[in-house]
Amino acid sequence: MSCAAGQIACSAAACAAYNRRVCRFNLSRLIMLNAFVLSAGRLIQVPALVPEDLSRPEVLWVDMVDPTDDERELVQKVFKLELPEDEEVKDLEESARCYVDENGVHMSSFFLSHSEDEYANVTVSFLLNQGRLLTIRQDELAVFRLFRLRARVQPGFVATAQEILLAIYDAAVEYDADVLEEIYTQLDGVSRRVLDRSAEMTDEIMGQALAELAGHEDINGKVRLDLMDTRRALSFLLRSRVLATAQEGDLREVLRDLESLNNHSAFLFDKINFLMDAVMGLINLAQNKIIKIFSIASVVFLPPTLVASIYGMNFAHMPELAESWGYPAALVLMVLSGISPYWFFKRKGWL
């Protein structure tokens, strides 16, 4: 009983100490910020933090996903800085997205987000502040999951905040490359369906092909926007002179990859436009066939209609009306007048 009582007392004392730490910052709950520290060369996440833990020198990265006002206020109070507002992050002007001030290097870039077969450009804000990296974003991204996995399982993958920043951008470029490869693979399937001369192109198949091509064009456009914005941010980072010589070399490698992906994206745009033109051409051919059928029908039925109209006139002196062979002769004349144009067009090769 004494041991149990001692454990209870220790637990109560620990809870009281923790509550005093939280109340000093007017908080009523644990601050669930994604903070990361180096442990044996690996980047390890600290799951639950109190304010004092954020200011530890071994914290290299603080990642905020859709932070609350209290969490933003806590980070600003601990690091004594002003975080950018959502309106500032969404500003497209380069001077508002990439700049240096007394708090450090600020950068905002588009990252590709994929959820439920839909792609979107999500803005991520970076801040290099006194050897730490702070990131703010509204959604969880596959790029960040990939980076965290690599940094957790590969010792020495990153060692500084600058290397974390470069590794995130490198993972983003790899993710964009994978998306472009997937687009090309799917375009190859559409190309085989559209250009296969042995297969019948129905209206449903052509409509489906157009819908797929429009979707690929939209995704390729978002990837291209992501690549262009990333290139602008990395060029600014290179000019800011905050990287070591080896890190600048890594950054230039990423910029070269970006250039090759931009060329690949332009190639995909050309391929998509070509396939769209091909599908539209097939649609026009199908429409022309339908118009051709109506044209042939009108030409074939026009002479018989003319004959029937003539004998439908109410004139008193029409000799054929009084003859017994008049009606059969009119029918034969109508048939011959319909077959003759069809035979003439067929002989000329117009059908």
Characterize the structure shown.
The protein has 351 residues and is of the alpha+beta class. The chain contains 11 helices and 7 strands. A 7-stranded mixed sheet has the order 2-1-3-7-6-5-4. α6 (142-153) packs across α7, α7 (161-195) packs antiparallel against α8 (203-239) and α7 (161-195) runs parallel beside α9 (245-310). The protein is rod-shaped. It starts with a helix and ends with a helix.
Would you count the extended β strands for me?
7
Structural class: alpha+beta
SSE topology string: HEEHEHHHEEEEHHHHHH
Radius of gyration: 36 Å
Catalogue the unreliable spans: 1-31
Mean pLDDT: 82
Helix content: 55-70%
Count of discrete alpha- or pi-helical segments spanning 4 or more residues: 11
Give the CA-CA distance, first to last residue. 104 Å
Q: What would the principal axes of the Cα set say about the shape?
A: rod-shaped
Strand order of the largest sheet: 2-1-3-7-6-5-4
How much of the sequence lies in strands comes to: 5-15%
Major sheet, described briefly?
7 strands, mixed
What is the subunit organization of this protein? Answer: single chain
Concise structural overview:
With 351 residues, the chain is an alpha+beta fold. 63% of the residues lie in helices and 15% in strands. A hairpin with a 2-residue loop joins strand 5 (104-115) and strand 6.
